[in-house]
Amino acid sequence: MKKIKKRDQEYIKQNNLKMILDIIKDKRSISRAEMVKMTNMSPTSVSRIVGSLIDLGLVKETEASSSGVGRKAILLDLDLESVMTIGVYINKHIINVGIVNFGGEILYQDKIKLNSKDIYPEAIISKACSIIKQTIKDSKIDCSKIIGIGVSLPGIIDSKKGTVIFSASLSWENVNIAKAIENKLNIKTIVDNDVKLEALAESLYGVGKNSGKTALVNFGRGVGSALIIDGEIFRGVTNIAGEIGHITIDPNGILCECGRRGCLQTFIVEDNLIEEANKVKEIVDIKEIFEASHNGENWAVSILERAVTYMCITINNIVCMYNPDTIVLSGSLIEAYPEILKAVEEKCKTLIWSPLRGTFKILYSKLKSESDIIGPATLALDTFLSLDI
Amino acid sequence: MKKIKKRDQEYIKQNNLKMILDIIKDKRSISRAEMVKMTNMSPTSVSRIVGSLIDLGLVKETEASSSGVGRKAILLDLDLESVMTIGVYINKHIINVGIVNFGGEILYQDKIKLNSKDIYPEAIISKACSIIKQTIKDSKIDCSKIIGIGVSLPGIIDSKKGTVIFSASLSWENVNIAKAIENKLNIKTIVDNDVKLEALAESLYGVGKNSGKTALVNFGRGVGSALIIDGEIFRGVTNIAGEIGHITIDPNGILCECGRRGCLQTFIVEDNLIEEANKVKEIVDIKEIFEASHNGENWAVSILERAVTYMCITINNIVCMYNPDTIVLSGSLIEAYPEILKAVEEKCKTLIWSPLRGTFKILYSKLKSESDIIGPATLALDTFLSLDI
């Protein structure tokens, strides 16, 4: 059913508070007068809304150094310590936890490595809760300022219910991790897919800051993508939108971990590149393919050339479907081997459909692994921050 | 830059008018009391807004037959004849023109066939204007009720500027058709991509009526798709989003009309199927492939089997990227050979990635070629209807 979007006074009030707060968050130092210009609102309205945000404790006045004659301008900034959220990232090797302030900065951080025995959801959730508690304790932060926890995981997630529907990498199925953490720690918790949250972090605090339509592609253990439109995650009806790794490329191709043949990610993921290499030379790390390629060994050159081609195909296909203004590339394959980027950019010149050329910029993840913490913490902030006055 | 969304009293007023109008448009016979229930608005607000819509001449009261004792209920419906728009569809073979009333119904329709000499934009635009004028004249409709013209074309369209950036099928480049028609006829004109407008029509008046996220795929001369979210076209930054026909499937595949190799549509479009068939048997019409397949000729069975596989891949790939609740299939290949649908549905059972199964319905275009008129007429209505009071 199409949405009925009721708009009333309360909606306007909340929307205006959020808009002014977003501007202050974006600029981090701005006068009321500048906001009047940006929004076309009246000075009275802007002052009233700013007043409410100051009353809520979220915004504070700071004094600019005088630029010459006349009064010093009063500027506004976030009160960075007013509210905090916790970001948690879980994959099969590690749990990362961080406390993030209102400005998206990580204040305290801790992590534990998981061993191969830690596969059961109960065990991992229990470890996550311990390290969250310990991090809060170590940080000496006033607990009342922590308004929520965000959890980031690889897999198909029902974010509304708080459930991991399916995670191939963790071998989880139907785990309500949000409820489990809430019950243990008594802090509101939300969970979402790791690539979507990475895209959210890059869009708000990273290289996508000035973009209205940011698509992020992560090349690593799998291939995933996510689209952020004006700061909102594009989810689809069941939060699956963006699973470009499982678009079918070759119905007779090699088997994917999903049980189907020839998914796009089978041409790119590290495990598959290593497996191919082993037909020629025994290797255990993808690093060895790059080294062999540098030394001009044909098999390695060929493996990387094909991977680069399919990375460009990934970019072309995302742009065909989403037509974003910005593509952010990230993931272990990109981070460990920046030389691959040059090859991708070069190949894109011919592989991208001509009407798409010039419609988007290719940028590289700025936050890197920090986004694993900032992403879920940001989602928790967006979800649990109350602007009720 | 992310959008600054100012919301003020005027925004609420317009939004509420539009919401109530959309409900009446959807239900076409509804009481004020039912709308109060649907919207959670106060009876006073609903009555005031309905009053404004009646004043604007867009809505009228009708009397329901009594369901027994008590007062007869007063129902509301659109005043169908209050405003009209003209829908125009152009491809290289035909110009279709229709006058559409406020309820999305085609009142008058005319068409002319184009011959292969009519390739220049000026000639086609001039013919389109003649037939629009003639249709208005024949219909005897009061011209003042016609608020705009919508034009639908295959190609990459800058809808804001009114320009056809590129149409492979018409061999047009940078043609400002909207301005040309406006200048000739003095009626406001908007132009958009044919598949996007078909999707809009199906979403509002066809099988997608109850869907909030409808993706339409058109299999015909090309392969195109479009996504409609709550009645709005998902465009991307340059109105290219949805061009699934040009996602790359095989970088070593056969050449596409776009000049690149192995685009998805090269595996499906009619011209390519006929070209393949001619390696075995001289044919001119795709009908002959279906006939040969019915007679068990292997080459024809093989050609259609592969086309069906790639149609399923198209569906899988759209669902991976958009995660819609509904997929509408349309286009000449589907319309002329409904037996292909059964094969597609059967093959989808194994080709669709398992987390996507059950998240969407496959439906078949209801409006068929009517959507070529209703789509652009609807866009013109959405664009040019003024709710100022």
Task: Describe the protein.
- Two copies of one chain form a homodimer.
- By secondary structure, chain A is an alpha/beta fold.
- The first copy, chain A, has three domains: 9-78, Arc Repressor Mutant, subunit A; 84-198 and 371-384, Nucleotidyltransferase, domain 5 (2-Layer Sandwich), CATH 3.30.420; 207-365, ATPase, nucleotide binding domain (Nucleotidyltransferase, domain 5), CATH 3.30.420.
- Chain A has helices at 9-27, 32-39, 43-55, 121-139, 177-185, 194-205, 270-277, 286-294, 298-322, 332-336, 339-351, 371-384, and strands spanning 59-63, 74-78, 84-90, 94-100, 106-113, 146-153, 156-158, 163-167, 172-176, 189-193, 213-219, 223-229, 232-233, 326-330, 361-364.
- The first copy, chain A, is globular and about 70 Å long.
- The interface between A and B is large, with 69 and 69 residues.
Descriptive keywords:
homodimer, 389 residues, alpha/beta, Arc Repressor Mutant, subunit A, Nucleotidyltransferase, domain 5, five-stranded mixed sheet
Sequence of strands across the biggest β-sheet of chain A: 5-4-3-6-10
- Structural class of the helices, strands and pairings of chain A? alpha/beta
The name of the CATH superfamily of the largest domain in chain A reads ATPase, nucleotide binding domain
Determine the CATH topology of the largest domain in chain A: Nucleotidyltransferase, domain 5
Residue share in β-strands of chain A = 15-25%
Assembly state of the chains shown: homodimer
The major pleated sheet of chain A works out as: 5 strands, mixed
